[in-house]
Amino acid sequence: MGCANESNLLCYGITRLPYVVSTVEDLKLSSTSGERVNTPMTAAKFLHLNFLEIYLDGDLSPGYDYLSLVSFLNASPALETFIFRVDQDEMLFDSIIGGALHMRQMPNTSTIA
Protein backbone atom coordinates (compact mmCIF):
# COMPACT_ATOMS: atom_id res chain seq x y z
CA MET A 1 0.00 0.00 0.00
CA GLY A 2 1.57 3.25 -1.12
CA CYS A 3 0.46 6.77 -0.63
CA ALA A 4 1.97 9.62 -2.64
CA ASN A 5 -0.40 12.49 -1.89
CA GLU A 6 -1.61 11.86 1.65
CA SER A 7 0.34 12.20 4.84
CA ASN A 8 -0.03 10.06 7.96
CA LEU A 9 -0.38 6.75 6.12
CA LEU A 10 1.10 4.85 9.06
CA CYS A 11 -1.47 6.23 11.48
CA TYR A 12 -4.21 5.16 9.06
CA GLY A 13 -2.52 1.78 8.61
CA ILE A 14 -2.53 0.89 12.29
CA THR A 15 -5.93 2.33 13.20
CA ARG A 16 -8.01 1.24 10.18
CA LEU A 17 -6.36 -1.61 8.26
CA PRO A 18 -6.72 -4.32 10.93
CA TYR A 19 -10.49 -3.93 10.60
CA VAL A 20 -10.50 -3.86 6.79
CA VAL A 21 -7.94 -6.56 5.98
CA SER A 22 -7.75 -8.57 9.20
CA THR A 23 -6.41 -11.72 7.50
CA VAL A 24 -3.57 -10.06 5.58
CA GLU A 25 -0.27 -11.99 5.75
CA ASP A 26 2.10 -9.64 3.90
CA LEU A 27 1.91 -5.86 4.21
CA LYS A 28 4.10 -3.18 2.66
CA LEU A 29 3.42 0.43 3.63
CA SER A 30 5.15 3.16 1.67
CA SER A 31 4.69 6.81 2.63
CA THR A 32 6.22 9.50 0.43
CA SER A 33 4.18 12.50 1.56
CA GLY A 34 5.47 12.66 5.10
CA GLU A 35 4.32 11.56 8.48
CA ARG A 36 3.13 14.24 10.88
CA VAL A 37 1.30 12.17 13.49
CA ASN A 38 3.03 9.57 15.64
CA THR A 39 1.67 6.06 15.24
CA PRO A 40 -0.75 5.36 18.11
CA MET A 41 -1.14 2.13 20.07
CA THR A 42 -4.32 0.31 19.21
CA ALA A 43 -6.30 -2.69 20.40
CA ALA A 44 -6.75 -3.94 16.84
CA LYS A 45 -4.50 -6.80 15.72
CA PHE A 46 -3.05 -8.17 12.49
CA LEU A 47 -3.41 -11.78 13.68
CA HIS A 48 -2.10 -13.37 10.47
CA LEU A 49 0.58 -10.85 9.51
CA ASN A 50 3.91 -12.59 8.86
CA PHE A 51 5.77 -9.96 6.82
CA LEU A 52 5.75 -6.19 7.35
CA GLU A 53 7.78 -3.62 5.45
CA ILE A 54 7.56 0.10 6.20
CA TYR A 55 9.24 2.56 3.86
CA LEU A 56 9.35 6.29 4.59
CA ASP A 57 10.52 8.71 1.94
CA GLY A 58 9.76 12.37 2.19
CA ASP A 59 9.43 15.23 4.56
CA LEU A 60 9.04 13.86 8.06
CA SER A 61 8.02 16.14 10.85
CA PRO A 62 11.09 17.02 12.96
CA GLY A 63 9.24 15.74 16.02
CA TYR A 64 8.17 12.44 14.45
CA ASP A 65 8.85 9.60 16.87
CA TYR A 66 10.14 6.58 14.95
CA LEU A 67 9.75 4.50 18.10
CA SER A 68 5.98 4.97 17.87
CA LEU A 69 6.14 2.35 15.10
CA VAL A 70 6.43 -0.25 17.83
CA SER A 71 2.62 -0.23 17.75
CA PHE A 72 2.84 -2.27 14.53
CA LEU A 73 4.97 -4.85 16.32
CA ASN A 74 2.52 -4.92 19.21
CA ALA A 75 -0.38 -5.41 16.80
CA SER A 76 1.32 -8.28 14.94
CA PRO A 77 1.77 -11.30 17.22
CA ALA A 78 2.63 -13.68 14.34
CA LEU A 79 5.16 -11.35 12.69
CA GLU A 80 8.27 -13.12 11.41
CA THR A 81 9.90 -10.42 9.23
CA PHE A 82 10.00 -6.67 9.82
CA ILE A 83 11.81 -4.32 7.43
CA PHE A 84 12.03 -0.61 8.13
CA ARG A 85 13.60 1.76 5.60
CA VAL A 86 13.94 5.54 5.70
CA ASP A 87 15.13 7.70 2.82
CA GLN A 88 15.57 11.29 3.88
CA ASP A 89 17.94 13.50 1.89
CA GLU A 90 18.18 16.44 4.25
CA MET A 91 18.46 14.71 7.60
CA LEU A 92 20.25 16.79 10.23
CA PHE A 93 22.28 15.10 12.91
CA ASP A 94 22.82 16.74 16.27
CA SER A 95 25.77 15.72 18.37
CA ILE A 96 24.80 14.38 21.78
CA ILE A 97 28.15 15.45 23.24
CA GLY A 98 28.22 18.99 21.90
CA GLY A 99 30.56 20.30 19.25
CA ALA A 100 32.94 17.61 18.04
CA LEU A 101 35.03 19.79 15.74
CA HIS A 102 37.93 19.84 18.22
CA MET A 103 38.06 16.03 18.13
CA ARG A 104 39.11 16.11 14.48
CA GLN A 105 42.04 18.48 15.00
CA MET A 106 45.50 17.27 15.89
CA PRO A 107 46.94 18.95 18.95
CA ASN A 108 49.83 21.28 18.21
CA THR A 109 52.88 19.33 19.37
CA SER A 110 55.57 21.25 17.52
CA THR A 111 58.02 23.22 19.59
CA ILE A 112 60.05 26.22 18.58
CA ALA A 113 63.80 25.63 19.07
TrEMBL record:
Q: What is the species listed in this Swiss-Prot or TrEMBL entry?
A: Hordeum vulgare subsp. vulgare (Domesticated barley)
Entry coiled-coil feature ranges? none
Tell me the ranges covered by the At1g61320/AtMIF1 LRR domain, including all copies.
5-109
Q: What is this protein called?
A: At1g61320/AtMIF1 LRR domain-containing protein
Transmembrane stretches, by residue range? Answer: none
- Source superkingdom: Eukaryota
Q: Which InterPro entries match?
A: At1g61320/At1g61330-like (IPR053772), LRR_At1g61320_AtMIF1 (IPR055357)
